[in-house]
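Input sequence (133 aa), recorded before submission:
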Amino acid sequence: MIVAELTDNERATLKRAAFGVVYLVSNAEPGFLAMVRESVAASGAFTGARGLARDVLTSGGLPKFPRKDPGRVEAEVLPALSQSLAILRAKAPDEVENYRDAVLSAAQRAAEASHGVNATEAAVLAKVRAALA
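Predicted structure, token format:
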């Protein structure tokens, strides 16, 4: 049962941050096939989430990100992760770990999905872990 009522904007922040992480990891290893494998792997983490995190991450449309400017995406996504945790701490503190686990799992699965974790993906994962600390 979902007990917290999040505004549409708050839900969008949580979703954009989580999917933005997957975008950053996927962008760290070029190639269409790699991107598809990574997206599928990450989606499994989102559908396997529990509670409010699952509801937010598996409902509605997908956020759009600029294709040519991963730096801009990173500058938006990492602060959005911290903001997402603040939203959950204020409105649904019992859901913070569910969300954190889903995002970290999606990032890790995406990084491992195509030829293992490369150095660029490892650097993205470190930034994501720091933002979620």
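Checked by second reader. The longest helix spans residues 70-91.
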